[in-house]
């Protein structure tokens, strides 16, 4: 566990659909109609009520975020955000990934959500290099804390031991001075 300006930051290894926290973030696609990876897992675990709400929302541009309830999952809300598809890094992918994290936090704040868990957005099917993606994730979260505040707990959910160790390395470097 790390602390930044009174906000608790932690890394959790495992399945985000099982986390009992106010909001979990979904790495969705522009249609919001479900997909592979974490998106598929969230719709499966949450049940059809999430898809019904997503249909009403009608899609989400890359870098923005939308919210639904969590259906049958232990969390209360799902914040659906869309990360960029990684091509070669020269197409604004970094800014779009940053926006996906930042806008998810903004939406959380609007809903008075204090605790949120993020998967590693865009690093699965969308192919974003994990090292860069986790740096962007941490930067967006710390910038948000600096500029906007209003959040108390952020969890970075890693789906593998390697992802966990990657986040640990970056957070140790930034917050534990080693
Ligand atoms: P994207 O299309 O944004 O790349 P993916 O779902 O393919 O989204 O992958 C995003 C990240 O989520 C990957 O690092 C993947 O390992 C991870 N992931 C997949 N399933 C889960 C899950 N159930 N809980 C947490 N993370 C998951």
Offer a concise description of the structure:
The chain has about 180 residues and is an alpha/beta fold.
What would you say this structure looks like, in words?
- This protein has 178 residues and is α/β, with parallel strands linked by helices.
- It has one domain: Leucine Aminopeptidase, subunit E, domain 1 (3-Layer(aba) Sandwich).
- Helix content is 40%, strand content 21%.
- It has helices at 37-46, 48-57, 93-110, 130-147, 161-176; strands at residues 2-4, 7-13, 23-28, 65-69, 77-82, 115-118, 153-158.
- It has a 7-stranded mixed β-sheet, sandwiched between helices.
- Helix 3 packs across helix 4.
- The protein is globular.
- The structure holds adenosine-5'-diphosphate.
Looking at this protein, list some descriptive labels:
globular, single chain, 7 strands, alpha/beta, Leucine Aminopeptidase, subunit E, domain 1, binds adenosine-5'-diphosphate, 178 residues, 40% helix, 7-stranded mixed sheet
Round the Cα radius of gyration to an integer and report it.
Answer: 15 Å
Largest sheet: 7 strands, mixed
Dominant shape: globular
Which ligands appear in the coordinates? adenosine-5'-diphosphate
Number of spatially distinct domains? 1
Q: What is the tally of beta strands?
A: 7
Adjacency order of strands in the biggest sheet: 1-2-7-6-3-5-4
Layout of SSEs?
Layout lengths: L1 E3 L2 E7 L9 E6 L8 H10 L1 H10 L7 E5 L7 E6 L10 H18 L4 E4 L11 H18 L5 E6 L2 H16 L2
Parallel strand pairs: 2-7, 3-5, 3-6, 6-7
Antiparallel strand pairs: 1-2, 4-5
The chain binds adenosine-5'-diphosphate (ADP).
């Amino acid at each position: 566990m790390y602390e930044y300006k009174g906000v608790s930051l932690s890394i959790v290894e495992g399945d985000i659909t099982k986390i009992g926290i106010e909001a979990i973030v979904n790495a969705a696609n522009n249609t919001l109609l479900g997909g592979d990876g974490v998106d598929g897992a969230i719709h499966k675990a949450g049940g059809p009520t999430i898809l019904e709400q997503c249909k009403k929302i009608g899609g989400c541009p890359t870098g923005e975020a939308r919210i639904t309830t969590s259906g049958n999952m232990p969390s209360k809300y799902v914040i659906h955000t869309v990360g960029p598809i990684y091509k070669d890094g020269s197409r604004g992918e970094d800014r779009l990934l940053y926006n996906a994290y930042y806008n998810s936090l903004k939406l959380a704040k609007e809903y008075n959500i204090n605790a949120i868990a993020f998967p590693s957005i865009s690093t699965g099917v969308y192919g974003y290099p994990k090292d860069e993606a986790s740096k962007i994730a941490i930067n967006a979260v710390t910038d948000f804390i600096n500029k906007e505040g209003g959040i108390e707990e952020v969890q970075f959910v890693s789906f593998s031991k390697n992802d966990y160790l990657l986040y640990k390395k970056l957070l140790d470097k930034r917050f534990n001075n080693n």
